[in-house]
Specification:
The chain is 31% helix and 31% strand. With 213 residues, the protein is an alpha/beta fold.
Amino acid sequence: MKNYDNVTIFNHPLINHKVAILRNEKTSMKEFRELVEEITTLMTFESLREGVPTVECEVKTPLETCTQSMVKDNAIVIVPILRAGLGMVNGVHVLFPSARVGHIGLCRNEETLEPMEYYCKLPDGIEESLVLVIDPMLATGGSACDAIDLLKKRGCKNIKFMAVIGAPEGVSRVAEAHPDVHIYVSTLDRELNENGYILPGLGDAGDRLFGTK
């Protein structure tokens, strides 16, 4: 995969350690869910280092009054792509507990491997916020592209995308379709198989998060 200015692949030893456990087929549903949240929190800290709307305010310390920047109210909206993206929401809320949450429902056509929208509910005023789109797996990139397209149609201009595992095909597709959206991936895997699943991957993230398999 070629290098893109709008793509960051994390290579953090702690994240890599957690991803190794996440991949293991013997990892329980409870531990899998906890690991996804922990990895998301680590990624969020780095992903939102820039671009978060802030305001200056005065704070009275025990010694004097100073000026300090704070995150602006309603600055961040979390938008998980249903259903697996729900597993990442709490990981973001650990750092931004007041962030509002929108939902975009996209399911994959098993013949074309392309996404189909079935649900969309977004907070009012989302176009004024930094929108963090989250999905554990960035495989073909179809769902991510469609979700970002939908948000842009609603007027959103400040969008970031975050995934735990990415395939080169999906990362390239989103990076080229949306060069203004920064993409953050904890681990870049080898490739997609003929069914559009990431290899070596970790299986179906939704099934492992919610025990539906």
